[in-house]
Design a protein that fits this description.
Layout (H helix, E strand, L loop, with lengths): L11 E4 L2 H8 L5 E5 L12 E4 L5 H14 L5 E4 L2 H9 L1 H4 L10 H8 L1 H11 L6 E4 L2 H5 L9 E5 L5 H9 L6 E3 L2 H14 L4 E5 L8 E8 L5 E13 L5 E8 L2 H13 L4 E9 L6 E7 L5 H7 L4 H4 L1
Helix pairs in contact: 1-11, 3-5, 5-6
């Protein structure tokens, strides 16, 4: 384990992997890691590590309460996944006795972490989102063939087993499935229905590759004022249509900053935010894909470029 030169500093409690621990550790902030990865506590950036089995909310809450109750001053709490964010948000009243953390109101957190609710929020707030249809059964789509936005991307309404189902049906892991026309959509629905029944979204496909996807990253105080921000751009994903990032960079893009700040200030946002956009190469218009109200893997890249949002928090 690492030894820190300033042992009396208030520690940070990081739920997740090492990326946030690195952001804080390079600034000599003592880090207590709570993770389902057994190797995390052995990082030189961690003062202490607690192992918690994955997808065990009760055990995670117990571990956080126990850690917080032992500290003389409230640690700052960091979280990386939607599951951890939702647990902390829903039990914020109890956890705020032990920790300091800043996040949006509970209803807004729920709106942003459920794609169906986010679609409704986008319509109400007039956000520049791609056309989206929510459905569960293929019969619902057959009644609205003229309204289907082909080509489109199929996504889950909630995080869950979607990627595992797609892997079993198609032999690949993707966050979304690209669908060219009705015949491909029908085959997808039949394959998916064999595995699981849940709400799905069909979202209009905005042309362009991974390098057309930009993200606004920022941190907002209690009054929804931005304290720091930067813009990221994807270079490559795998699979290419709706896969995971494999190459990233930071860029200067005033349009992304302007639209990101406008959207988040309109939502009276607090805490860390990541807003994903796709820029239509035909018009240059930015379409919003999602808003993540949590810390994320981009923050390590930001910290290496001089904008350390976790340390600011």
């Amino acid at each position: 384990m690492s030894s820190f030169s300033i042992e009396h500093r208030v520690p940070a409690v990081v739920v997740g992997d090492l990326n946030l621990a690195r952001c804080l550790g390079i600034k000599k902030v003592p880090v207590i890691a709570v993770s389902s990865f057994r190797f995390v506590p052995y990082s030189r950036y961690c003062k202490k590590g607690i192992f918690v089995p994955a997808q065990n909310d009760d055990r995670l809450f117990e571990a956080l309460a126990e850690i917080g109750s032992r500290e003389h001053e409230k640690p700052i709490l960091f979280y990386l996944t939607n599951d951890d964010l939702c647990l902390i948000s829903r039990r914020r009243g109890e956890l705020s006795k032990y920790y300091r953390f800043l996040m949006p109101d509970e209803n807004l957190v729920e709106d942003l972490t459920n794609k169906q609710r986010f679609n409704c929020l986008a319509e109400i707030k007039g956000l520049p989102a791609p056309k989206t249809i929510v459905f569960r059964r293929i019969e619902e789509l057959e009644r609205h063939l003229d309204d289907l936005p082909f080509p489109c991307i199929a996504k889950p309404a909630e995080h869950g087993s979607f990627e595992q189902v797609v892997n079993r049906a198609y032999g690949r892991v993707e966050k979304g499935v690209y669908l060219e026309d009705w015949n491909v959509l029908r085959r997808f629905c039949l394959a998916f229905k064999k595995e699981e029944e849940q709400d799905l979204l069909l979202q209009e496909y905005i042309p362009g590759g991974a390098d057309a996807i930009f993200s606004f990253h920022g941190f907002f105080d209690e009054a929804s004022r931005p304290l720091a921000y930067f813009v990221g751009r994807k270079i490559r994903t795998y699979p290419s249509a709706a896969g995971y990032s494999s190459c990233l960079t930071l860029v200067r893009d005033p349009d992304v900053i302007q639209v990101g700040l406008h959207i988040l200030s309109g939502l009276k946002f607090k805490g860390p935010a990541k807003v994903d956009f796709k820029k239509d190469p035909r018009t240059g218009k930015l379409f919003i894909l999602e808003i993540n109200p949590r810390f994320n893997l981009w923050h390590y890249l930001g910290s290496m470029s001089g904008i350390n949002i976790p340390y600011l928090a």
